[in-house]
Records
---
Amino acid sequence: MAGRMSALFDNTKRAFRAKAIAHASRCAAAGLFGARSLAGARSARVACRRGVTLLEVLLSLTLIVLMMSGIFGFYNTVLRVRQEGSVLAQDVLLTRAILDRIADEIRHATDIVPGDGIGFRGDRNTITIMLSRMTENYAYIEYDDTVIENMPAPQLDLIRVKYELREDPEEVDDEEGLPIVYGLFRSEQKVFDPNPEVVVELDTDLGGEQEVEDLPIETAPVTTELYAPEIKYLRFQYFDGMQWLDQWQTVDEFGGIDMGKAAATGKASYALPQAVMITIGRVRATREELELTKQGSEEEEEDEIHHPDRFTIVVHVLQSDPSLITSRKFGVADQLGRSSEGLE
């Protein structure tokens, strides 16, 4: 019995030892596999951290430069177009504002002619208009005649406005050989001699001993300003009811009629044009255009060139004769006067 128990104990001991050896073998195998996996992961990480070649760097920089140059060119073009558009819009707004002011004053021109005989008149580059206005409040206040120093400046209910394009014929531009154009000038005269003919009645009691002295009437100077130096082209045309004329109430070397003196004394009626066409621009007339102007209006209209910088507006003169009789009569007489080399 004791021998059997000893044998069973030995067999059990050998079985446990075999299991322990098998378990140790499996753990050793598992540890070796884990070490190999860890070594593979480390080698992969080392491979990922490896640097790029010089060729790859050059290709990357080339692509970046090409992309940035394209983006810079696009934005540069957008900024340039935006700036040009802003400048063009400002020029258009300024030109339209100047044109609207001239048109508004011509629209409300009156046919009243002061005593100096200068009323509504004009040619291609100049126009003079008379406007009625309300005087300032101080004109209706009574002042002490003995205190002359405190008297305010005199006022009239008329104002004379003149627009003209001035150029210096002595200074010539070297590029085209044309006179330098200074720009659009605006003149304003608020006080002028309403009746320069002063009649002095002699006192019969004094006989011939009295002397007749001239009575000068002081008039305020004409205020002239450079209204728009950027305007280099200006043209006026006058509609008499049937055709457009280049002059109105002016006399030049080709003749013409001016009814200002007769209208100032009440001997004749003054005629206003039915409408006025105004054209202004930022580029002056070329030599070819000036030559066409000298040849005549018909050839000029046929060979007229489009100028994108010029703006034109037609203004109806509100106080013109609605029957067209006076304006048309003056237009015919003016044309006959120019064809006959002057007509008084």
---
Amino acid sequence: MRVAVTGGTGFIGGHLAACLARRGHDLVLIARGVDRSDHGLRLVAGSALVHASVIDGSRLRDAFAGCDAVFHLAGITAPRGAQTFEAVHVAGTAAAVEAARAVGVPRFAMVSSRFAAPDAPHPLFETKWRAEEIVRDAGIEHTILRSAAVYGRGDHVVNAVARAVTTRTVYPLDLRRRLLRPLAVADLVTVLAASLDDSRLVRSTVTVEGPDEVAVADLVRVVAMALRRKPVCVRVPRWLHPFDRGAIPVMVDGSAPPTALPTATATLPADLAPRIRFTVGAIVDSLPSPAARPAAVV
């Protein structure tokens, strides 16, 4: 199959592209640029790279032409200049859907967030919800995966915590006890790849989350153990939190997924359920390279 991936050189896009290439699919990777956070994941041999803004309908139509499926993975965790949540998540999704319909792409899949909701407190999650609605209302064969916080090589969760615990001896935590279900990128990619031909995922919105419920404090400790660091965790009011909230908003603003949504979500088939446990070993595999891991604190 010929498959287009928006955000194809980003974190999730890079892992998905590598998986699809191993399965013999032809790839068209659409991106504004190349994510340099982990060079080994970003470009897949033999794939076509199209430099285009996700809101450039003409470029998207050209890139999607002849494709059997589109994976819409373009997204941001913090606004930067013209790359706002509204522009990327809402206008970008509308442009991608319209381009796919215009050239007759039969399948469309996107990754959202399990925190997405019409009344979400953070604009990242509110705009993700509106992006979901655009896809659901488009009248196309689609799959929407509402993902938990995703970790793996090149991620923006574990690596943000890793940077913090290697540069500080004290790690501040919000006063509220926050619970996450971290999702290994390999598990997410497995479900995405299945959506190409699994009829159980057609016209469905599915929540995908890891098998372990983890408090943010425990997440920090597991990452620290993988790095052989020993930070002191101290709870502080949210407004005193010194780290970039844009990098990991799910740990600051996404304290709990919405309990009720206007649109029902489907149950993920049991054979596709994530199985990778959130362990020290999994975190070690998520870090950039063994040579880059700091020595133990003594």
